[in-house]
Write a structure and sequence with these properties.
The chain contains 41 helices and 13 strands. By secondary structure, the protein is α+β, with helices and mostly antiparallel strands.
Length: 921
């Protein structure tokens, strides 16, 4: 329906007059031109109106040379109408105008009107403007010169209204029904893209009545899409058709004649009438016109004037009730016939039109929808099965409109809801019809009754599986039909909780149940089954991974698409409480329990599962025992763990973080995790739900070692405790559980503690040094070389704090010095302590040698200063280690010690020590 124009827009009508005349002041002798315009015509609109003007008017009876007033009044007129778009159209009214100002005969005056769009409720058909007194019809140069466009466009002339059209058709003196039937069917074919109709008439006034009769048997809106001309000659038909005419009337003398591509016949013929779905009409020249429902309906309506008047009035009211836009020519009349018992001789034909041509607006107009539903109900058969088959056939054949399919879905829904047998055996694709049915109050009430019956069965304690099957099938149907609202939703959830959920949670019964049931709509699963399930005590009372059988899980999350990642979960933690996330977690843990099934776990689901497990652990729920397997099987990053620790600091077990702490390069996220684990009590908090003291302690030990920076603050007792509690387990874990190449900053710290551990490894302590594989020893040696300054300064700080014995350092610096005598019984040069070297390629020294050089430069140095003191330290170290020939060994080192110590003292006297900042690699 065309919207009402704003007052600031152009008026509805624009007008233009065109003729040959002498424009005052031009000095010309006249000529064809636009005489006047009104109604804000723009350039395109002017061009449109000018293109449709004809400048020739060839009447079969030419005007007398000196016409009388009566002759002028009887002049033939030509009114053409063409549809443009929507409810817009153009009129061209043309009359002979005698001689122009120069005396040339054959002048024509054209009055053109543009209708930019009918207002809502405008029931005027274009042909009703025939013979309006507002059309300009001047004759002679003077009248042409004085002719002025009216203030308003020509309105209805009162000549071709409904009464006139019916009186013309039902004139007892002339039987016109036969010709009218052919004319209707020919026009119907043209309106649907077929050939235009060339119709011979006695005169334009008679032509206007025929056009009016056709127009009044369609709605006003459809009539505005019907193009016509009241007068053309046979040779000019093509131009009129090109302008949009479906029906062109010509003088009878032009017939017999032919217009290629058009259906040609005259009003005075007696055509051979055809039958619907049978032989077509046949006219005098042999043209054939298929019979349509429209002409059959018209013949039924044209019993008498009163009956026809009543039917056509009802037709217009029906059209107005649906907006009267884009209606077919026959549908409003068909609806009028269906609703009038006196016209039911054509009920079958009318019903066929209603089914095939009803607009979507009819489905929402209660009175009209009720009529269509009555027709549909009769054609759907007696059973639900018959109705389903009919609907399927309509769908395949495209035999009914979407509006009818929608209403048919409503009719079918009534039948199906009350047919439990059909609901139980129906497949998902059979429920699709309910997605387009109309939701009426009656249908809603029926749905409530069905739900009430299901609730009684669920409360009655009968066969729970049967109730669950019927309930889920019915609820799926109601969801598709959008019939679960308000109270019905509450009842549906109660039925689900009482019957369906216990069945699904039965690990044996549930598998067979979903296999027999088959798929239900995603909306049913997501909006109803999933939330009812995840809130049910039977489901929530079990650990993740054991709540549902895998086939039930797959049935519930079939077609899963919306999986939140860690970023989404971190920004909106409540998403983890969504039923789909709970089910994802249960499914992931169910597969994790079965090692052979772990490869089936989609990587994007793992973060959801772990987040949910930690959430449940924090909330006091079940903690899955196989979380470590899930952690171990996924390549977690420090960034991911930071998000999890940020959300669940008390629930992330330290052992989960160990691999990332050990393997990942240093960065802000790793620093956060390391410091989190290094905090006092980190293990105690996390282990309250999944305790594994040894592994959690080991992870904390790794973190403490990697986080160590304050070497000068470590006391002797603290170092000894750290070596026993942290360093020894970590070195053993490094040897047995990790590849040799770890981040350099971590290996450098392990090397520092390796030196400290060697210093504390004495027979009386019972402490042993772990046996590292060759590759691991090589990795430590490389780390010392790469981060030499940091390692040297850290060891020097341990000496300064008293944690590392300076006498032990001095003695072993001698033992490990590359230039020292090789005494195999003291220290094998393949020992990792001897292999720790620093310095440039040309000048290499042992790590401990470099530490001594650094320590001796410091003002707080308290170690041996002379050769005797250093030899005493060496002797004491040999005795502590139970060496068998201390005297001989000391003699071996005596000469070297003097020169070695002199070099260190001289170097200490020459410079002050610098302190490098420990760095991370």
């Amino acid at each position: 329906m065309t919207a009402r124009r704003d007052e600031t827009e152009s008026p509805r009508f624009g007008q233009l007059s065109y003729t040959s005349f002498d424009r005052p002041g031009t000095g010309s002798g006249g000529g064809w031109q636009v005489k006047e315009m009104a109604g804000d015509l723009d350039a395109d609109e002017q061009a449109l109106l000018r293109a449709g003007v004809v400048s020739r008017f060839e009447s079969p009876q030419p005007m007398p040379r000196f016409p009388t007033v009566e002759d002028i009044a009887r002049r033939p007129r030509r009114l053409m109408y063409a549809h443009i778009r929507d409810a817009a159209g153009c009129y061209w009214h043309t009359v002979p105008a005698g001689s122009d100002a120069s005396g040339r005969p054959g002048n024509v005056f054209a009055h053109a009107v543009l209708d930019r769009g009918a207002e809502p409720g405008d029931g005027v058909r274009p042909i009703e403007r025939w013979r309006s007194t507002d059309w300009l019809v001047p004759y002679g140069a003077d009248e042409v010169a004085e002719a002025a466009l009216p203030a308003t466009a020509p309105g209805p002339g009162g000549i071709v209204d409904r009464d006139a059209a019916l009186g013309f058709l039902l004139d007892p003196g002339t039987w016109r029904i036969g010709v009218f039937s052919v004319l209707l069917d020919a026009v119907a074919r043209s309106l649907r893209g077929g050939p235009a109709v060339v119709f011979g008439c006695e005169d334009p006034d008679t032509a206007a009545l025929w056009i009016g009769a056709v127009s009044h048997f369609m709605s006003p809106g459809t009539a505005r899409r019907f193009g016509w001309s009241t007068f053309d000659r046979l040779h000019s038909v093509d131009d009129a058709v090109a302008r949009g005419a479906n029906l062109v009337t010509v003088p009878l003398p032009d017939l017999p004649g032919d217009s290629p591509g058009c259906t040609v016949f005259g009003e005075n013929e007696t055509p051979e009438l055809g039958e619907l779905d049978g032989e077509p009409h046949s006219v005098a020249n042999g043209d054939l016109v298929p019979v349509t429902h429209w002409s059959v309906l018209a013949q039924t309506v044209l019993l008498d004037v009163e009956t026809a008047h009543r039917a056509l009035a009802h037709q217009d009211a029906i059209a107005a009730g649906v907006g009267d836009r884009d209606l077919t020519e026959a549908w409003p009349l068909a609806m009028a016939v269906v609703t009038d018992p006196g016209l039911h001789d054509a009920l079958d034909e009318a019903a066929s039109v209603v089914l095939a041509e009803s607009p979507m607006e009819a489905a929402t107009a209660p009175d009209l929808a009720h009529v269509i539903v009555g027709i549909v109900d009769e054609r759907l058969g007696a059973t639900t099965q018959q109705a389903e088959e009919t609907l399927a056939r309509w769908q395949v054949d495209n035999a009914v409109t979407p509006a009818v399919r929608q209403l048919a879905g409503t009719v079918f829904a009534f039948r199906a809801l009350s047919d439990g047998h059909w609901v139980r055996r129906a497949r998902p694709e059979q429920f699709a019809v309910f997605e387009s049915c109309t939701r009426t109050e009656d249908l809603q009430a029926e749905a409530d009754v069905i739900l009430g019956d299901l609730r009684l069965r669920a409360r009655g304690g009968g066969n729970l599986r049967d109730v669950a099957f019927d309930a889920l099938k019915t609820i799926d149907l109601l969801v598709r039909a959008d019939l679960l609202r308000d109270r019905g939703v509450d009842v549906a959830f109660e039925v689900l909780e009482r019957a369906v959920i216990p069945t699904l949670c039965d690990r044996v019964e549930g598998t067979g149940f979903v296999a027999e049931l088959g798929p239900v709509s995603a909306s049913t699963r997501v909006r109803f089954v999933q939330p009812a399930l995840t809130a049910h005590p039977v489901f929530a009372g079990r650990p993740l991974g054991s709540r549902l059988a895998p086939p039930v899980l797959e049935w519930l999350v079939d077609g899963l698409l919306d999986v939140p990642d860690l970023d989404e979960l971190a920004s909106d933690p409540q998403r983890i409480t969504e039923p789909e996330c709970v089910l994802i977690a249960d499914g992931v843990f169910a597969l994790t329990e079965q090692e052979f099934d772990r490869a089936r776990i989609r990587s994007e689901l793992v973060p959801v599962a772990l987040w949910r497990a930690l959430h449940e652990a924090r909330e006091g729920g079940w903690a899955p025992s196989d979380v470590p397997a899930l952690v171990a099987g996924h390549g977690w990053t420090a960034e991911q763990w930071c998000r999890l620790v940020g959300a669940f600091p008390e629930a992330v077990a330290p052992r989960f973080l160990q691999d990332v702490v050990v393997r990942e390069p240093w960065g802000p996220e790793l620093e956060t995790l390391v410091r989190h684990l290094a905090e006092p009590g980190a293990r105690e908090e996390a282990s309250r739900w999944a305790a594994d003291p040894y592994l959690d302690d080991l992870a904390v030990s790794w973190a403490l070692i990697r986080n160590e920076e304050r070497w000068a603050a470590i006391s002797g007792p603290a170092l000894r405790r750290a070596l026993d509690v942290h360093v020894l387990p970590v070195l053993e874990d490094y040897a047995e559980g990790y590849e040799a190449d770890l981040p350099t900053d971590l290996l450098a710290r392990l090397a520092i503690f390796t030196v400290a551990l060697r210093a504390q490894t004495l027979p009386e302590t019972g402490r042993h040094f772990p046996d590292l594989p060759a590759r691991h020893r090589e990795a430590l040696v490389r780390a010392v070389d790469e981060d030499a300054r940091f390692v040297v300064d850290a060891l020097a700080s341990l000496v300064g704090s008293g944690a590392l014995d300076v006498y032990w350092l001095m003695a072993h610096a001698v033992f490990t010095s590359p230039s020292a005598p090789r005494v195999r019984s003291v220290l094998d040069q393949r020992d990792v302590l001897a292999r720790f070297e620093v310095g440039s390629r040309g000048v290499r020294s042992s790590l401990l040698d470099e530490v001594v050089s650094t320590v001796m430069k410091r003002p707080d140095y308290r170690g041996p200063l002379g050769v005797h003191g250093l030899m005493d330290a060496i002797r004491e170290e040999l005795h502590l280690r139970g060496h068998r020939d201390v005297a001989y060994t000391c003699d071996m080192y005596a000469g070297f010690v003097r020169s070695w110590l002199d070099e260190r003292r001289a170097d200490a006297d020459r410079s002050s020590p610098g302190r490098a900042t420990p760095r991370r690699v």
